[in-house]
Amino acid sequence: MIDVTYNQIIQEALGSFPGNTLDRATPESAVLDLEANERGRDFFAGDVHGHFGDLERSLDLIGFDSSKDRLICVGDLIDRGPDSERSLEWLRHDWFFSVRGNHEQMAIESALDGSLLRIWMLNGGGWADGLPERCLDSLKGQLSVLPYAISVKTTCGQTIGVTHAEVPIGLTWQAFCDTLREEALYPERYPVAQLSAIWGRIRISAIKRDGFERLVRKLEGLGIAPEVTDWLVRQDPAKITPAPKSGIRVCAVGHTPVPEFVRHGDVAYLDTGHTWKAGASQGAALQANTAFPLIDAQELLSLEDPPSCSAQEAC
Q1: CB neighbour list of residue 159: distance below 8 Å, 6 or more residues apart
Q2: pLDDT of residue 159
Q3: What is the pLDDT of residues 254-299, one digit of tens each?
Q4: Which of 8, 15, 69, 137 is close enough to 40 for a disulfide, judged by CB 3.0 to 4.6 Å?
Q5: One of 103, 164, 255, 274 is an active-site residue; which one?
Q6: Annotated catalytic, 103?
């Protein structure tokens, strides 16, 4: 069961966002289950943000074999980088998989009304202005069937969960997946699990204490009830951080940049902020020959908590 106060935070904090109704996946596409890759290797990548040239260079460096290897991404394929339009090309590959991130969600919902379009444009969506309408419609169609979560079985018998932002506090991975399907099946329900999968930052904010304090101030600015922010301040980061296992070894997420791949509890954070490190901002050109960080399944399963997991030092 989703923690009641967490539920309230998501509903109140994201209720002010015009896209809170969500253009939702179907129950069939809300969660993707991938069987173990018996023929090749599985690699995982953080937020791509249009840096497909860098991603290609990294795949070449590791000898990626598209006939047997797979690449799984934590979402935010588009915006800010130079090659966002290539996401349509990549999504057609049968070896490439991704969950939907908040940038995909903004693109999908940009056609609903002008305010949503403006929000997307302000967050890196300007590249779409020059895209033919039929190509943009095709891309949005591809993005709209991206799952909120992927379960990846490995050859060692472990399972890796993948979502863009976070699993709601109070849910195990299996309960999270079940709730995602239920929210897609019953659109009249408030989509707390889906919004958490796309936008949530409670866990990572709890790890990074200054981020936690900023989150509390932001919620206070939105007029969130004081008892809710009081609840946040009282939380023990060590208890908020882990995503309860229930069927997975580790949950890989992106959304919030960290300096390097890092694991806290049962969550591995893979967004190393490549779009900023490469010198790209709001669609600016990349520095040449920049490799995109990748991690293979065995390395991901072997990631350990930092020796000193203090909230101030974590990220």
Answers
A1: 151, 152, 153, 247, 248, 249
A2: 95
A3: 999 988 999 888 899 999 998 877 654 444 444 445 789 999 999 9
A4: 69
A5: 103
A6: yes
Give the domain extent around 156.
4-302
How many independent structural domains does the chain possess?
1
Is 307 inside any structural domain?
A: no
Strands 42-45 and 294-296, how do they pair?
antiparallel
CA distance 138 to 144: 10
- In-domain check, residue 204: yes
Q: Give me the phi and psi of 191, to 5 degrees please.
A: -85, 65
How is residue 52 written in tokens? Answer: 């497909």
Q: Which residue has the higher pLDDT, 238 or 163?
A: 163
> Residue 313: inside a domain, yes or no?
no
What's the CATH number where 92 sits? Answer: 3.60.21.10
Q: Which residues contact 203 (CB under 8 A, 6 or more apart)?
A: 166, 167, 169, 240, 241, 243, 264, 267
Look up residue 102 and give its amino acid: N
Angle separating helix axes 209-221 and 4-15, nearest 10 degrees:
60
Task: Give 62-74 pLDDT, tens digit per residue.
Answer: 999 999 999 999 9
Average pLDDT (231-258) is 72
Q: Hey, is 2 helix, strand or coil?
A: coil
User: How do 42-45 and 70-73 pair as beta strands?
Assistant: parallel
Q: Is residue 129 part of a domain?
A: yes
Task: Strand 294-296: give its sheet, edge to edge.
Answer: 96-98, 70-73, 42-45, 294-296
Rounded to the nearest 10°, the torsion over CA 262, 265, 271, 277 is: -30
**Entry pTM:** 0.84
Spatial CB neighbours of 125, under 8 Å, sequence gap ≥ 6: 78, 79, 103, 106, 107, 110, 117
